[in-house]
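Consider the subject:
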Amino acid sequence: MLVIPHRLHCMNFKKITIFHDDKWKLSRSAIHEYIKILGYIRKTLSPKQKCFWHVSLTPSVNGLTTGSLFYNNKQFSINYNFFHSTFEINYSNMQYEINIYGQSAESLYVELEHLLNENQINLNIDQSEFTCHPHPHYDEKTVIFFSEIISEVYNVIYKLKCNQSNETSPIQLWPHNFVLSMHWFSARGVCGHDTFNEKFSDEQINFGFSFGDITYPDPYFYITTSPSSEIFKSITLPSFAMWKNKSWQGIYIPYPSLSKLQNSKDSLLKFLNDVLTFGENLM
């Protein structure tokens, strides 16, 4: 009999000390450029979904995947294998691999497009959408850390998702800004917003994780709401969380600080549940 424990198997987030290392920063930049390729392909071949869910990627056991894609009568998927640093094109009866080798996103797309064309799949994406500079400092060992962090974060957000009766989004990675997130919906609309623009017209709480950006270079968890995150200003924050107003408004939880705590995963999960309950009562 399968028994699912209430607590997470590993209580602590992985402690990673290379966030300020050049290998981390340069590999993060390369990964970001590569996953934009998969996002464009999903956007091109997938029917429109709510809140742009048709352009996001899904975490997999070894990296990220587009999930099933369809072109005429062909079904296939494209995976980014972080452990082998390859793009994998999967059909029902065959698989193709492309070694990344730190090449530019543009050249990687051209190689990928060629293999798809050989199987009568025509994307017609302008290759100028992708950067042409190579990534010689792409470090394969560092890239594996990204997959491990994605797995840890996904596990926590999945636990949060499974406890909800309200509608929630898929747990998805957004290629354009390199964040992993899940939206919780209150089932109420936002007064004064276009009802056909569900991104802004539906009351929602966004639980996410960023691998770092210009404003906050280190990876971090974040919580925002629509229409406004002001409701969280009155919540009591634990020591590992803080309120932020710079570039976006919401709750900011730096990964390096969180990973130093004992039982950090359970502490975070409890706080996320508390925030959701608090927000649900006020929205």
